[in-house]
Specification:
The chain is an alpha/beta fold. Helix content is 43%, strand content 17%.
Length: 301
């Protein structure tokens, strides 16, 4: 009798994400087992409990999902799970803390496509800036964009020290080349976006980060992407459904276009579904993180 498919969902936060639970069920996992407040040093034991309780054929119907809100911790937990495997007792592991890996991958891939379509440019030819750059989505977006070749700056609203600390950590971890900046006023935002080709907005929902007045200072802007679907939008003039629509307030940038939250979310949804489903279909264990998410997002688009 074929064993039921089980997804063990490890989360260092007090609660697992209902979004991830729904996505896992829709992808075909029959049983979900959430674990909250999971510490890094518990991952090894939990993983081995999961792999040794089933035969090698049953193990293929077992997976681990790693949530939380910290990109670095999620990668550490994924690596700890991988080290706990004892072939042929191996299971697939997918890290997507706060949905940041799939959201960021979808955002960067959407922007990359519009950049090519409307300006015949690549990420390697562009300077990118990430507002809300020190949150989960912002860090993941920045790392993906940097590793894809963009000259990328992470912006914190309150503290340059915070931005610099995060940049140092993730440059070290992933050999990225991120830069740090602070922008707590419209004047500082206007100065920062003046010479950038790409703007990513990953700030908290319901907060307008870039007003029409600020966007007037963008002279080189080509594509702006916003993941905020709660009014007001993070970037004024971008509607959530926009995908390559003219950014009307960037009056000094020729051909600037916007990408909205629902357009990004459509790709994010498909992406997370495909990656979760791949865990059930593979003959060999998969260890999925933001790099796999970006590769697959590019393929989807």
């Amino acid at each position: 009798m074929e064993k039921r498919s089980i997804l063990h969902m490890l989360d260092p936060m007090p609660n697992n994400s209902p979004f991830d639970v729904n996505m896992a069920l829709d992808a075909g996992f029959e049983v979900l087992m959430p674990y909250s407040n999971v510490k890094l040093d518990s991952v090894h034991g939990l993983t081995q409990d999961a792999i040794f309780s089933r035969s090698p054929s049953g193990v293929k119907r077992t997976g681990l999902f790693i949530g939380g809100r910290d990109m670095g911790l999620a990668i550490d937990m994924l690596n700890a799970a991988k080290l706990a495997m004892v072939p042929p007792f191996e299971i697939s592991v997918f890290a997507d803390p706060s949905g940041a890996f799939t959201t960021a991958a979808a955002l960067v891939a959407c922007v990359e496509k519009e950049l090519k379509t409307h300006h015949n440019k690549t990420l390697q030819e562009c300077k990118a800036i990430v507002f809300g750059g020190t949150g989960p989505d912002g860090v993941a977006t920045g790392v993906i964009a940097s590793l894809a070749g963009a000259d990328t700056t992470l912006v914190d609203h309150l503290s340059l020290d915070t931005a610099e600390d995060i940049v140092k950590e993730y440059n070290r971890r992933f050999k990225a080349t991120l830069k740090a900046a602070k922008a707590s006023s419209d004047e500082q935002k206007a100065e920062l976006i003046a010479e950038h080709d790409i703007v990513f907005c990953t700030a908290k929902a319901g907060i307008q980060v870039l007003s029409a007045k600020v966007l007037e200072h963008a002279r080189s802007l080509k594509v702006a992407g916003d993941v905020n679907a709660v009014p007001p939008m993070g970037i004024e003039g971008i509607k959530s459904t926009h995908l390559g629509k003219p950014l009307i307030h960037a009056i000094n940038s020729t051909g600037a276009v916007g990408v909205g939250a629902l357009a990004v979310g459509n790709i994010k949804y498909k992406l997370q579904h495909v990656l979760l489903k791949s865990m059930l279909e593979t003959e060999h264990p998969l260890y999925l993180d933001f790099r796999d998410a970006f590769e697959k997002a590019r393929a989807i688009i």
